Amino acid sequence: MRQLTVTVDRFPIAGKFTIARGSRTEAVVVTATIREDGATGRGECVPYARYGETVEGVAAAIEALRPQIEAGMTREALQAAMPAGAARNALDCALWDLDAKRSGVRAHVTAGVTRWPAATTAYTISLDTPEAMAEAAAKAADRPILKVKFGAPGGDLERIAAVRRAAPGATLIADANEGWTEDNLAAHFAACAEAGFALVEQPLPAANDGFLGKVSRPVAICADESVHDRASLDRLVGLYDAVNIKLDKTGGLTEALALADAAQERGFSLMIGCMVGTSLAMAPALVLAPRARFVDLDGPLLLAQDREPGLRYEGSVVYPPEPALWG
C-alpha cells in the first residue's frame, strides 16, 4: 500500500539572492515522499509567488490528492488531475523516482536518455549595484557561464558593461525577469550585443512580450515567465529564439519532456532552468540537460546547506544523481 508524506523544508541561502522582483535569504520548498512496497520516491518543488503560488497552498493541493495517490495514481493520470505548477511537479518527480526504485530501471533510461553525461551549469550573479555585481562576477570569472540578473529601474546599462569587464572570458546570459520596458528595450539589447552576451532571458513582462515581434533583436531571446507548458508555446513563435524549461512551471518531468519535444519541433533551442532549490529539485531536471543549449541548474551552489546526499558539483560541472538522491 502506498503512503504519501508532505513536508515543508527550509534551506538557508549563502548571502542573499536578488532579482528584479525582490530578495530572499532562504529557499522554502515542499517535498512529496511516496512509499510503496519498501521503495521510496521523492520530489521537491519551489512554490513561486509570481505564479500565484504559496507554500501553504501548494502543500494543501498535494494533500488534497492524497486519496488518489495512495490508491495508485499513475504519472499519466496525474497530468489530468492537476494543473501545471509546483504541486504537480513534486508529485510527478516523486512518482518517477518511485518507479525507478521499484523497477531498478533508472529514470533517465525510462525517459529515453541513453547517455547521461555531466553538464556545465550557468552560475547566477544576483542583482545589485554595478560595482557589487562586478565584484561578484570577478570572483566567479573562472566559471564558464554566468547568468546575470538585471531589471531594476535604472542602471542596467552600467551593470551590463561592468559585469563584462569583470568576466571578460565568460559566456554571459542576461536575465531581466520581466524588468525592462518597451522604451528602454532597444538600448539594453544594444548594450548586451556590444558586451557579447549570448542570450537575453525574458526582457519584457509576459503580458507585453508581443512587442518583441516589432523590434530588431541583435541578441538571441529566451522565454521564461512566458512559457509554462505546451499550451503556452505556439504564441511564442517569432518572438523568442529559445525557451527556459523549469519543472516547477511544467508541473514535473513528464510535461517537461513533452514540452522539450514540442519546442524543438518549432525551432526553439532549450535552456533547462530552476528555482532556488536543493539537489533533489535539480536531479530530475538534469534528465533534459543533454538536449539543452544552456543548463542553469545552480540552485545548490547558491545554498549555505544542501540535502544529503546531494548532487556532485566540480566548479560549474554537475554530475547526474546517484540513485540514493533521485531516479
CATH superfamily assignment of the largest domain?
A: Enolase-like C-terminal domain
- Major sheet, described briefly? 8 strands, parallel
- The overall pLDDT average reads 96
Strand content: 15-25%
The rounded Rg comes to 19 Å
Order of strands across the main sheet: 5-6-7-8-9-10-11-12
Order of helices and strands: EEEHHHHHEEHEHEHEEEHHEHEEE
Question: What brief labels describe this structure?
Answer:
327 residues; alpha/beta; Enolase-like, domain 1; TIM Barrel; 2 domains; three-stranded antiparallel beta sheet; 11 helices; 14 strands
Describe the 3D structure.
The protein is of the alpha/beta class and 327 residues long. It has two domains: 3-104, Enolase-like, N-terminal domain (Enolase-like, domain 1, 2-Layer Sandwich), CATH 3.30.390; 119-318, Alpha-Beta Barrel (TIM Barrel), CATH 3.20.20.120. 30% of the residues lie in helices and 23% in strands. The chain is built from eleven helices and 14 strands. It has helices spanning 55-64, 66-70, 75-81, 86-103, 107-110, 130-139, 156-166, 185-194, 247-250, 253-265, 279-285; strands at residues 3-19, 22-36, 39-45, 119-120, 123-125, 145-149, 171-175, 199-201, 221-223, 242-245, 269-272, 294-295, 313-314, 317-318. Strands 5-6-7-8-9-10-11-12 form an eight-stranded parallel sheet. It has a three-stranded antiparallel sheet with strand order 1-2-3. It has a three-stranded antiparallel sheet with strand order 4-14-13, with no helix packed on it. Strand 1 (3-19) and strand 2 form a beta hairpin. Helix 7 (156-166) packs parallel to helix 8 (185-194). The protein is globular.
